[in-house]
């Protein structure tokens, strides 16, 4: 059985696993787990939908099956970090340099879809102090 406890509102939640009744204390090793990342399910669903859309579009652009798409990675967080749509478009076009079909419609649609997303980030580690 797992229980969730929190000592104060600023501490991270921890999960402690309790031993079943009848187990000796000498056999018990206390195991701790903690939830390290909290993501909004709605945001994750948007990301998954975008990734599926990208794969579908790339299979059309490269005229092949999903497994045959050239090795390339369109990093949505990297695109979100870029200051302008021009920078984003240049990055994506650079990734698609070996595609023989026109990519402008794909790039335009991708940039439009990326605008509605938020950057996913992991919370800082316990030993890292956040700046005020």
From TrEMBL:
Assigned GO CC terms: cytoplasm
Superkingdom field: Eukaryota
Keywords annotated in UniProt: Acetylation, Coiled coil, Phosphoprotein, Protein phosphatase inhibitor
Keyword Signal: no
Disordered: annotated span: 1-29
Coiled coil, from the record: 55-82
SUPFAM superfamilies documented for this protein: Myosin phosphatase inhibitor 17kDa protein, CPI-17 (SSF81790)
GO annotation terms (biological process): innate immune response
Signal peptide interval: none
Chain intervals with Polar residues compositional bias: 1-12
Keyword Phosphoprotein carried by entry: yes
A Pfam short name: PP1_inhibitor
Family matches, as InterPro entries: CPI-17, CPI-17_sf
UniProt GO molecular function: protein serine/threonine phosphatase inhibitor activity
Family classification: Belongs to the PP1 inhibitor family.
Entry protein name: Protein phosphatase 1 regulatory subunit 14B
Organism: Oncorhynchus tshawytscha (Chinook salmon)
